[in-house]
Amino acid sequence: MKIKRYAVLVFICVVTIGFTTAGLAQTELTLKSPDEKVVVKFALKQIGGKQNCPVYSVSYKNLPIVVDSSLGFALKSAPSLEAGFEIAEVAKSSHYEIWHPVYGERNKIRDHYNQLIVDLKEATGPNRQLRLTFRAYNEGIAFRYTLPPQPAIKDFVISAEKTQFRFLADHTAWAVYSAQGVYSKVPLSKVKNNCERPTTIKIEDNIFAAVGEAGLVDYARMRLS
């Protein structure tokens, strides 16, 4: 069984919203957007006493947007998929095409990104596997979880998602708690549980970030807390 979902961070210039903590970096992988202004970094780090946790960060024009943020899942009746990993394989690629929507405001849309695929495997038994796919666009970044078919994971229930979007400060945010609801302007520290997407955050006067999602396959929609 595969689970897939793209979490999208768009610059108009997870899931937990919080502030920064840092671990000790090991192998660090870097992915840049085609114009090299957007940078995603991935590493396995020590987080809260746990070793080799998958962590990512995002910057725009050297300005930190999302600082070290955890990735992973808590599983019912099984150990969590959030620590104890090693990098099994890495692949990079680039993509460019123009596609034409059936209906919309534009008759053609450019799909241009650089991609990083990181295959993780637990260093000890049962050696479960987790694939992380990162894409860096000129407009922002996206990442996707995939649990590939494997003997160690057949039937499972996800009890909690460990994805984080961590920011350096208590930025201003625009939050909403129902579909087509009214957005409220609040500090990040005042964002309540079950916040809908997209959630927009003001990083600086002319730089904003929006957290959203796309491409849900066999998975629940995201809420922020």
Description:
The strands form four sheets. A nine-stranded antiparallel sheet has the order 8-9-10-11-1-17-16-14-15, with no helix packed on it. A four-stranded antiparallel sheet has the order 3-4-5-6, with no helix packed on it. A two-stranded parallel sheet has the order 2-13. Residues 11-25 have low confidence and may be disordered. It has no helices and 17 strands. The protein has 225 residues and is mostly beta strands. The chain has one domain: Distorted Sandwich (Beta-galactosidase, Chain A, domain 5).
Tell me the fraction of residues in β-strands, as a range.
over 45%
Query: Unreliable segments (pLDDT under 50, ≥5 consecutive)?
Result: 11-25
- Structural domain tally: 1
Shape: globular
Strand arrangement within the widest β-sheet reads: 8-9-10-11-1-17-16-14-15
The name of the CATH architecture is Distorted Sandwich
Q: Would you give the CATH topology?
A: Beta-galactosidase, Chain A, domain 5
Order of helices and strands: EEEEEEEEEEEEEEEEE
Separation of the first and last Cα atoms: 27 Å
CATH class: Mainly Beta
User: What average pLDDT do the residues reach?
Assistant: 89
Helix content: under 10%
Q: Which structural category fits the helices and strands? A: mainly beta
Radius of gyration: 17 Å
Reported for the largest beta sheet, the result is:
9 strands, antiparallel
Quantity of strands, as a count? 17
How are the secondary structure elements laid out?
Elements: E1 4-11, E2 16-19, E3 25-32, E4 38-47, E5 50-60, E6 63-70, E7 73-75, E8 85-99, E9 109-122, E10 129-136, E11 140-146, E12 158-161, E13 164-167, E14 172-175, E15 184-187, E16 199-204, E17 207-217
